Amino acid sequence: MRGLAGRAFVVTGGASGIGRATCERLSAEGAAVAIVDRNQELAAEVAGELAGRRGQAIAIAVDVSREEEAWAAIERAARELGPLAGVVTSAGIFDPGDMQLAADVSVATFERTLAVNLLGTFLFVKHVIPHLLTPRADGGAGGSIVTIASTAGLRGHGFGAGYTASKGGVVALTRLVAFQYGERGIRANCVCPGLTNTPMVGGAYDDPEAARRVTRGIPLRRIARAEEVGQLACYLLSDDASYVNGQVIAADGGATVV
Question: DSSP states of the chain as a string?
């Protein structure tokens, strides 16, 4: 992919799932990566693996919902990796307490989910923008923001009041940023994964019969692999997507067309 090699990117939730797959693809393309995750040990493990393949990667332990930690992570990434060219906001949670009717979801569960999924996205977008607006050595400026939402934010999945609200907020925020900063060279796009086999689902789709049931409504009749979503995020970061801005792309095997 054009425009990734030699550039530096920040990926939240980068120690597992879609975030990890994104980091691995970026590194394979020659980019430097800051792996931001609350799991310091796992983030360090991923960074070590990428560095062992001659990639440049650092691990930063962060609670994405805390502004001072988000700001510090962006500043450290720029200081150690060089001028930032983009961010992928992949950090997210689904609280088990959210798996019930909206009237039964506690305010604490709702707020905690929004704090990580929506506020965490906002904080990294907010604090990376000044770096993307800073002129680079080649005289250019700008960059790419890729947010990771969910098809839940497009149509709802029946449960998850906090999760659905947070992901819908990510979609709307991304469009706003695309409009506000497009003329200054910053592109912002949102990826909405459907069913994806990541650690977040806890192996729920490992059973063939369970997988068969949940894929009935997916035209491709299968669950996504994390790397399939990660490579889409990398494409949107790259110069190959230089005229793609403000888009919300469902990586869901066609489920949202049904």
Answer: -TT-TT-EEEEETTTSHHHHHHHHHHHHTT-EEEEEES-HHHHHHHHHHHHHTT-EEEEEE--TT-HHHHHHHHHHHHHHH-SEEEEEE------GGGSS-GGGS-HHHHHHHHIIIIIHHHHHHHHHHHHHHS--TTS---EEEEEE--THHHH--SS-HHHHHHHHHHHHHHHHHHHHHGGGTEEEEEEEE-SEESGGGTTTT-SHHHHHHHTTT-TT-SPEEHHHHHHHHHHHHSGGGTT--S-EEEESTTGGG-
